[in-house]
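Issue 218. Parser rejects a valid record. Input:
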Amino acid sequence: MSIKRDLRIASEKLVMASDDLRDLILAMPDDAPPTPTPRATVIPWVELNWWDAFKEDVVKGCLEWRGVAEQIIVTTRPGYADKYDKLYDEVVRHDIELLPGLKTSGFCDPFDDVDVWKRLAGEIGALRKATGGTRFILENEMALKPYVMGYEEINFTRLITCLEQLPKDLEYLWFPPHGWRTGGDPGVQRLHDLNLLVHGVPDLNVSFFSQRHEKRGLHKNGLQGVYEKQLRDMQAGGVSPTMLYFGKVKGKFTHWPYDRVVEAVETCAESGFTEAIIYPGVKHWPEASRALAGLLRGGG
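Output the parser choked on:
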């Protein structure tokens, strides 16, 4: 009898222990979802320099970024501010902010002409009125290339006066030439000297683009690394928006392939860049936007 009783007691204890274990498991919190890898904020960029040919494609491409990007850069040439009204209506109603900008090549010639910059300031004011934005892109790639290459000089005293003409209540994103590729070590130094001058203009709020290509060596070592360090030191450790090129142009650039867009944006965040400017070009803008936004939306 004692054995039977002992077995019954042991069985009851086992049931009680099982109930306690079940209650303990039920009380445990659910496993936390895996922490997503940080990404830089995505801001696509398209150039719209020939309105009649590409405007409809630009609108289509912009709308592909819904739910992925809150801002899109649309730059153009001086003289097209009135064209932004319709573009603004068609894009902004989908909760996408347009960041306007101007290409200075062919307009700021020479680059240190004060009267030209006065007219440029008027163009900027018109674009701001059309979009209501607080950020503005100055695309100086080709305009400054002769200076970076050492073919032309810029009078820095006059350039300060030029920059003083700009509206002061905007944040300017300053896009330079590829100094580390077009001018070698002297080009990087000339570009840095110019950046220091622009950065030091009183009451001018300006950030400077970095650029990184698919080949890791171009942004981890060499001249681009020197340029990035110069930017960080100049801005007291602050970071700039960084440019990501996608697609190939006759093998000329080492662009990121589309299927590595998630990696590219995550790499920017790992390097301390908070904004990744995605540039696939205008000719394939709708298709590129659909592909890139889809990959980012799906996580890769």
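Fixed in the parser; the record now loads. The mean pLDDT is 82.
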